[in-house]
Amino acid sequence: TQLLEQSPQFLSIQEGENLTVYCNSSSVFSSLQWYRQEPGEGPVLLVTVVTGGEVKKLKRLTFQFGDARKDSSLHITAAQTGDTGLYLCAGRSGNNRLAFGKGNQVVVIP
Amino acid sequence: NAGVTQTPKFQVLKTGQSMTLQCAQDMNHEYMSWYRQDPGMGLRLIHYSVGAGITDQGEVPNGYNVSRSTTEDFPLRLLSAAPSQTSVYFCASSYSNSRNQQFFGPGTRLTVL
What we know:
The complex is a heterodimer of chains A (about 110) and B (about 110).
Chain A: E1 5-7, E2 10-14, E3 19-24, E4 31-37, E5 44-49, E6 55-58, E7 61-65, E8 71-76, E9 85-92, E10 98-100, E11 104-109
Parallel strand pairs in A: 2-11
Antiparallel strand pairs in A: 1-3, 3-8, 4-5, 4-9, 6-7, 7-8, 9-10, 9-11
Chain B: E1 4-7, E2 10-13, E3 19-25, E4 31-38, E5 42-51, E6 54-57, E7 64-66, E8 76-78, E9 87-94, E10 103-104, E11 108-112
Parallel strand pairs in B: 2-11
Antiparallel strand pairs in B: 1-3, 3-8, 4-5, 4-9, 5-6, 7-8, 9-10, 9-11
């Protein structure tokens, strides 16, 4: 089982601040996905990155896939209260299964 | 489209009882899967199916059975519930088991006493 480590586990920031969370592994992934999960709901896909070094932007969210395809980061610019949630990264490996990290719990305080 | 639906939303069982968690999707997805989510453990794959009539084990299959008689439905059966199976269960579906987006249901919160 590929181990995906997400850090920090918990992050609390003021509205308007920037934040970055990380997803790291010693394994190489063919693709990596980021999901956001809100309380009482299932995860919702935000982005899929495939190519090493790839950067994708989704409004104020910037996702980067590491050059070696072992790690990824999510940067949020000028966080809003609507960004509060559990951010999950999931990597797809050679057996084509999707392995999830434990998540980054982000709380944006108004 | 209703997407992925799960029933029940909440369930309390006694140790040794059996039950079936229902999952249905109306998107004609071939790939369906069941996960459990526990505090500090993330999402773990229980069973998955790449199409009607085909199922396979995931990371934590013990104590659970699945079947896939139709494309739309993928029920998860607990044969003899144990307290260790207390968790939130999510069903997910996608067009195929590749880079496609997985759509998750709203989850079933199960407590085994």
